[in-house]
Amino acid sequence: MKIYAALSAVTLTALVATTSFAVEPDEMLANPVLEERARIISQDLKCVVCQNETIDESSAPLAQDMRRLVRQRILAGDSNQAVLDYMVDRYGDFVLLRPRVTGQTLLLWFGPFVLLLLGGLIVARYIRRPSITTVQALTPEELAEVEALTRDPNTGNEP
Amino acid sequence: MSDGTPKTNSGRLTAIAPILIALLLVAVFAKRLIDIQGGLDPNQVKSVLLDTPVPEIDLLPLPGRGPGLTTKNLKGEVTVVNIWGSWCVACLSEHPLLMKVAAENTIPLHGIAWRDEPEASLRWLARNGDPYNLIGQDPISEAAIAFGVTGAPETFVVDPEGVIRYKHVGPITITDWAETIAPLVEQLRQ
């Protein structure tokens, strides 16, 4: 039990440790409300150097400068959307971690659902397919044939 | 009557569908592979700044080295702007080419010293040669972000109206210069 507890403690620490942030204390805005907005915006912006990190978690120098710029724009009175637009104007949609829904990204956003639907339809069809082919009534000719075959050859009578 | 069920049209379709899908995928991947062999870089994102005016910049000079770099300097003639830093290893590989371009003295080549200590920039230029006409310091990436830069070196060709016409990511090779940048500069001059 002790080992188990120790193991879970280690695992938990590891999990917590992965959600570290790169924002340095001297970067932060004095106003906590504005700082909170900066954090929210930063989590939507991609570090263009390291690409799979947000600028909020990246310690790359360029990410740090982008964080500073985000805070500058907030202090200049920009709305969250305006700050994101400012970055998109320079880096394109590429800088957003959550791609916008545009003609170009329709497939990206809805493709999986279309595939899911398609797969579901195929599965539904497969499941509903009768496992035994429907029995069709014999034609009079077939009936006659069956009768002939099952007739006792010796007596000429049905068994 | 081998399996007892007559083949319907839709039954046949379900049978070939996987093959068709597989062939389609092969075609898509093959096209992509051929494009990459042909020089397409899938990691390169087309700059949204192409064909837009150069951003407003007003950068300080390196100490003791003439004026800095402002948007004004990027208007009136075709210019080439190179983002560089003394810390940038890849910049060294394109440097001999930039020196050669500067020696020909046919086109203004301006530098943006990105996120660099001014003394380090100057030392680097003293050691490797200084091909730049004007240099502006960009210590906190103001110009780099305005130009949508993702890494050094990056090079921009700006037309006489101050509109960005070309962006090159990474070191420029002799081929890049001879086949793409030099002809573009010629064309923009007319």
Outline the structure in words.
The complex is a heterodimer of chains A (159) and B (190). With 159 residues, chain A is an all-alpha fold. Chain A starts with a helix and ends in a 9-residue tail after the last helix. Chain A has 6 helices and no strands. Chain A has helices at 2-18, 32-42, 61-75, 80-91, 106-128, 140-150. Chain B is an alpha/beta fold. Chain B has helices at 9-37, 89-104, 118-128, 142-146, 174-189; strands spanning 58-59, 69-70, 79-84, 109-114, 135-138, 154-158, 164-169. In chain B, helix 2 links the parallel strand 3 (79-84) and strand 4 (109-114). The longest helix of chain B is centred in the N-terminal third of the chain and has 29 residues, at 9-37. The termini of chain B are far apart. The model of chain B has no long low-confidence stretch (mean pLDDT 91). The A-B interface holds A 48-49, 61-62, 65-66, 68-69, 88-92, 94, 133 and B 4-5, 45-49, 55, 115, 140-142, 144-151.
Q: Helix tally of chain A? A: 6
State the helicity of chain B in percent bands.
Answer: 40-55%
Structural class of chain A: mainly alpha
- Per CATH, the superfamily of the largest domain in chain A is Cytochrome C biogenesis protein
Distance between the termini of chain A: 77 Å
Poorly predicted spans of chain A: none
Q: Which CATH-level-2 architecture of the largest domain in chain B?
A: 3-Layer(aba) Sandwich
Strand order of the largest sheet of chain B: 5-4-3-6-7
What is the approximate shape of chain A? elongated
According to CATH, the fold-level topology of the largest domain in chain A is: Helicase, Ruva Protein, domain 3
How many E strands of chain B? 7
- The count of β-strands of chain A is 0
- Shape field of chain B: elongated
User: Uncertain regions of chain B: pLDDT < 50 for 5+ in a row?
Assistant: none
Order of helices and strands of chain A: HHHHHH
Outline the biggest β-sheet of chain B. 5 strands, mixed
